């Protein structure tokens, strides 16, 4: 299903960012870099009727593809939405090679490797409806191919593959939920990034990293009018860019994001956040994604009565926290109980269903008219979701609920909770992989945070930045990565 022309005008945001850290000493020091990220979907669709419906459909298409990518071992319960055609929610620009070239990649906490389309690749897009110029990576430049018997390949494949000969490259293949895929081989090249070197200051820096060169794209990935050059996985595995930079002593395995849907702007940083302080909950060990243990849900302060074991999801444990997913998905029993509590005051309200979203007319402030939903996690970490976060405005006085019925179904038939941007926005979310915890706090994402470089002891302020309109012309300085701060804003149509 081709994206409608209208869908591409819905996206538009911009981000920018900046970040921090230090490192003057000859010892390797944790660094910080900068990512500029754009958001594809505004939180509020401007129009009503068809446009609003298209917007809702686009959100689900995005998440549909997303789920396939996120949960390799999990079956998707999404149905009736057509093939996902969106590439993702955020993208940033990175620079690779010497001399460096820029590539636009989706930032994805649900996958592990960085890959970009290779030169002469089969099925790769040459144009993008996102208004960006696509670039194919040429490994014949400063890069070198990684062999299947080299350490990176052996470690990430749990040993040498039987088919490996000394001449063979280290190959990868990623298959997504909608049937699209990327196949290619690993290369090694220089990643260029801006290391934060002072309050609001950065210094160009570089590191050698191993990443995928996409030789063949299958399915929608190559044909999408919202095509990008690749995907930057922010997952936990040793093959991720974050892990490689950490292994090289360039950064600590800690990153954070703060996405401001109220004013635009935000932060996405790699580094040890010391201000604000966040309370944390343990990550469920051994899971490929960022899973935590959800204990209960309260609406307006009253705890929902849910069957015991509601959140015990069998083999795939816990609740997935994923900033690359737009909405939030709940198992049916949880969804129904939650919705009846949210609408308890409005027994007579007419609630209509559009594309599986519950929608209704309401005038006045939703924050005054609807309750706060509170999720409670292991070790007393709570997460408040405010009405302006979970209710999307779709035209005048018309709102839809961003929670959807249908958790992610695992292979053993259990439903998992998946919490995306809907609940993560307007909070500073910290992923501390060094200590295997994740935490958050309500935060003004238009303000600033402080990050400490534990090797040098320096602490720098990282401010939110806003590129807004004209962002392409403002991207003139070097490129980025690592201690990343992101900011975005939305253009309304
Ligand atoms: C990479 O960084 C080193 C040390 O900072 C610098 O000397 C070198 O010129 C950089 N290389 C490139 C290609 O930018
Ligand atoms: C990942 O790398 C760390 C440090 O290099 C190593 O101790 C660990 O065993 C690796 N994990 C896997 C699954 O290879
Ligand atoms: C970003 O820029 C736009 C347009 O200049 C402005 O309306 C918006 O308030 C800015 N947001 C922040 C967080 O500064
Ligand atoms: C958030 O921070 C920005 C920048 O410091 C400030 O201008 C704005 O007033 C703050 N918003 C709130 C609600 O405090």
Topology of this structure?
Blueprint: H1 5-10, E1 13-14, E2 37-39, H2 49-70, E3 74-75, E4 90-96, E5 101-108, E6 114-122, E7 144-145, H3 151-156, E8 171-175, E9 181-198, E10 201-218, H4 220-223, E11 230-233, H5 241-247, E12 254-259, E13 266-270, E14 272-275, E15 279-282, E16 291-292, E17 294-299, E18 302-303, E19 319-321, E20 328-330, H6 332-342, E21 352-354, E22 357-361, H7 366-369, E23 373-377, E24 381-385, H8 387-390, E25 391-393, E26 398-401, E27 403-405, E28 408-410, E29 415-416, E30 418-419, H9 421-424, E31 427-432, E32 437-442, E33 448-452, E34 459-463, H10 471-474, E35 489-490
Parallel strand pairs: 5-11, 6-10, 19-30, 20-27
Antiparallel strand pairs: 1-35, 2-4, 3-28, 4-5, 4-9, 6-11, 7-9, 8-9, 9-10, 12-13, 12-31, 14-33, 15-32, 16-19, 17-18, 17-23, 20-30, 21-22, 22-26, 23-24, 25-26, 28-29, 31-32, 33-34
One 2-acetamido-2-deoxy-beta-D-glucopyranose (NAG) binds next to strand 10.
Summary keywords:
493 residues; alpha+beta; Cathepsin D, subunit A, domain 1; 2 domains; 6-stranded mixed barrel; 5-stranded antiparallel sheet; 10 helices; 35% strand; disordered N terminus; disordered C terminus; binds 2-acetamido-2-deoxy-beta-D-glucopyranose; aspartyl protease; aspartic-type endopeptidase activity
Summarize the structure in short.
This protein is of the alpha+beta class.
Q: Which overall shape is indicated by the principal axes computed on the Cα atoms?
A: globular
* Name given to the CATH homologous superfamily of the largest domain: Acid Proteases
Topology-level CATH name of the largest domain = Cathepsin D, subunit A, domain 1
CATH class of the largest domain: Mainly Beta
Q: Which runs of at least 5 residues are low in confidence (pLDDT < 50)?
A: 1-49, 66-89, 466-493
Number of domains: 2
Give the number of helices.
10
């Amino acid at each position: 299903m081709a994206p409608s022309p209208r869908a591409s005008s819905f996206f538009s945001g911009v981000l920018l960012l900046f970040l921090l850290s230090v490192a003057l000493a000859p010892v390797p020091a944790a660094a910080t870099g900068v990512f500029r990220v754009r958001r594809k979907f505004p939180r509020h669709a401007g129009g009503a009727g068809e446009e609003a419906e298209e917007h809702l459909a686009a959100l689900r298409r995005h998440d549909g593809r997303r789920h396939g990518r996120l949960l390799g071992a999990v079956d998707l319960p999404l149905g009736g939405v057509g093939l996902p055609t969106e590439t993702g929610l955020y993208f940033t620009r990175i620079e690779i090679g010497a001399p460096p070239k820029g590539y636009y990649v989706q930032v994805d906490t649900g996958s592990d490797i960085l890959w970009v389309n290779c030169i002469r690749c089969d099925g790769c897009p040459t144009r993008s409806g996102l208004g960006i110029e696509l670039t194919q990576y040429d490994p014949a430049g400063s890069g070198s191919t990684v062999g299947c018997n080299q350490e990176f390949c052996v470690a990430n494949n749990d040993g040498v593959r039987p088919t490996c000969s000394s001449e063979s490259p280290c190959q990868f293949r990623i298959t997504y939920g909608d049937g699209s895929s990327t196949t290619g081989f690993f290369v090694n090249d220089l990643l260029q990034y801006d290391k934060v070197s002072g309050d609001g200051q950065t210094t160009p820096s570089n590191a050698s990293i191993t990443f995928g060169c996409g030789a063949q794209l299958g399915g929608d990935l190559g044909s999408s009018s919202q095509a990008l050059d690749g995907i930057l996985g922010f997952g936990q595995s040793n093959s991720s860019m974050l892990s490689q930079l950490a292994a090289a002593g360039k950064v600590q395995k800690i990153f954070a994001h703060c996405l401001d849907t109220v004013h635009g702007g935000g932060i996405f940083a790699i580094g040890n956040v010391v201000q604000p302080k966040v309370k944390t909950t343990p990550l469920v060990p051994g899971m490929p994604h960022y899973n935590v243990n959800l204990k209960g849900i309260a609406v307006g302060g009253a705890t929902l009565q849910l069957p015991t074991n509601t959140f015990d999801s069998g083999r795939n444990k816990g609740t997935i926290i994923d900033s690359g997913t737009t909405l939030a998905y709940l198992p049916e029993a949880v969804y129904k109980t939650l919705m009846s509590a949210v609408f308890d005051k409005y027994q007579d309200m007419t609630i209509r269903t559009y594309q599986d979203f519950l929608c209704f007319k309401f005038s006045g402030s939703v924050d005054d008219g609807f309750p706060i939903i509170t999720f409670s996690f292991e070790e007393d970490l709570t997460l408040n979701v405010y009405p302006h976060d979970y209710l999307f405005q779709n035209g005048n006085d018309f709102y839809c609920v961003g929670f959807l019925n249908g958790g992610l179904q695992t292979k053993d038939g259990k439903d998992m909770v998946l919490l995306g941007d809907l609940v993560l926005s307007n909070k500073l979310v910290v992923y501390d992989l060094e200590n295997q915890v994740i935490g958050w706090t309500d935060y003004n994402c238009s303000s600033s945070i402080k990050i400490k470089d534990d090797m040098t002891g320096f602490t720098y302020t990282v401010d939110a930045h806003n590129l807004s309109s004209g962002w392409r012309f403002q991207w003139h300085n070097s490129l980025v990565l690592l201690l990343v701060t992101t900011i975005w804003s939305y253009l309304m149509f």
